[in-house]
Design brief:
- With 102 residues, the protein is mostly helical.
- 82% of the residues lie in helices and 0% in strands.
- The chain is flat and about 55 Å long.
- The termini are far apart.
- Keywords: Membrane, Transmembrane, Transmembrane helix.
- This is Branched-chain amino acid transporter.
- InterPro entries: Brnchd-chn_aa_trnsp_AzlD.
């Protein structure tokens, strides 16, 4: 391996281990700050949304099909549909639009 790759891997490992180990060693008491607790509560949801949103739009051949499926999924979830129903509806919309647009 080239030395630069080894350095990149070492830095990546140090950062990853640092973010995992430091909170365990430095924070002994429960977090009582209301703002920090609410911030930490929403971090997984925001991370999932940030990773999923671009994939929804770029997973299809047509941006229009992905955007329409996104809107259908949001509306279906807003109206109280279950996760399998939302997923099936979005897949159906993408399938139909891809057939029409192709």
């Amino acid at each position: 391996m080239r030395p630069s790759i080894v350095a990149y891997l070492a830095v990546m490992s140090a950062v990853t281990l640092g973010t995992r180990i430091l909170p365990l060693t430095l924070i002994r008491r429960p977090i009582t700050n209301r703002f920090l607790r609410s911030f930490l509560y929403y971090v997984p949801y925001v991370t999932l949304a940030v990773m999923t949103f671009p994939a929804i739009l770029s997973a299809t051949d047509s941006l229009l099909a992905g955007a329409t499926a996104l809107v259908v999924g949001i509306v279906a979830a807003w109206l109280g549909a279950s996760l399998p129903q939302v997923a099936a509806g979005c897949c159906g919309v993408v399938f139909a639009l891809e057939l029409l647009l192709a």
